[in-house]
Automatic annotation (TrEMBL):
GO biological process, one term: tRNA guanine ribose methylation
All residue ranges annotated as the tRNA/rRNA methyltransferase SpoU type domain in the record: 26-164
Purpose: Catalyzes the 2'-O methylation of guanosine at position 18 in tRNA.
Protein name: tRNA (guanosine(18)-2'-O)-methyltransferase
One Pfam family in the UniProt entry: SpoU_methylase
Record GO terms (molecular function): tRNA (guanine(18)-2'-O)-methyltransferase activity; tRNA binding
Residues annotated for S-adenosyl-L-methionine binding in this entry: 101, 144, 153
Source organism phylogeny: Bacteria, Pseudomonadati, Thermodesulfobacteriota, Dissulfuribacteria, Dissulfuribacterales
Domain of life: Bacteria
InterPro entries: Alpha/beta_knot_MTases, SpoU_MeTrfase, TrmH, tRNA_m1G_MTases_N
Gene: trmH
Family classification: Belongs to the class IV-like SAM-binding methyltransferase superfamily. RNA methyltransferase TrmH family.
Length: 223
């Protein structure tokens, strides 16, 4: 074991096992999703299905509730989007399709999407949904069929349904049975996550709300 990590071998193996199942070409973008319960629940679901990259567009810091995420926010890459147009252009140039949810006439059933392709799944604001910019620039608009009086689900529930459909399709194609991230990124995350474990223990609980930001640093927020 790399002595610079200073974590137990069992913990290191667990981190490696997690990274083996991460899906680098399935990403999530939260456009102005603001409620901390929703954000935290979404992050927890994203971690569960193997998502590594989560983008968000809030002007303030992403509101994360550690009690809801159960620490899941520490094991994903959270990246703030400063310019949405540039972000969408960049993702498309890298071969990603943009999939957004909205109640539009051309929206298709979310289960009819091929989630084994490189995708960025966009979830919109709790009240307003996705912006007009995203409606115009998305490659696919999807919806979750509703047969009741209410037309939409809570954003965290809707995200969970979509992500688990993606997980189902990818599992059928064997995407979780082989490593899909680069060895360089794997090594970088093992080092950062290993350092986090040590600092957390040495702080004796005084450091809260830790997260990994843009692979650049480990950042902490004191109580």
């Amino acid at each position: 074991m790399d002595k610079t990590l200073l974590i137990q071998e069992k913990r290191l193996l667990r981190i490696k096992e997690c990274l083996q199942k991460r899906q680098p070409d399935l990403r999530l973008y939260l456009e102005n999703v603001q409620n901390h319960h929703n954000v935290s629940a979404i992050i927890r679901t994203a971690d569960a299905v193997g998502i590594l990259h989560i983008y968000y567009s809030l002007q303030k810091n992403l509101p994360v509730n550690d009690a809801i995420t159960c620490g899941a926010h520490k094991w994903v890459i959270l990246e703030k989007v400063e310019d949405q147009a540039d972000f969408l252009k960049k993702m498309k140039s890298q071969g990603f399709q943009i999939v957004a949810t909205a109640l539009t006439p051309d929206a298709i059933d979310f289960r009819d999407i091929d989630y084994t392709r490189p995708l960025v799944i966009v979830m919109g604001n709790e009240l307003e949904g996705i912006s007009e910019e995203l409606k115009n620039k998305a490659d696919i608009i999807c919806k979750i069929p509703m047969h009741g009086m209410v037309q939409s689900l809570n954003v965290s529930v809707a995200t969970a349904l979509i992500l688990y459909e993606a997980q189902r399709q990818r599992e059928q194609k064997g995407f979780y049975s082989k490593k899909r991230i680069s060895s360089e990124l794997e090594a970088e995350l093992i080092k950062k996550w290993g350092i986090y474990e040590v600092l957390k223990k040495k702080s004796r609980g005084r450091l809260k709300g830790s997260c990994l930001c843009d692979l650049g640093k480990v950042c902490f927020k004191k109580e």
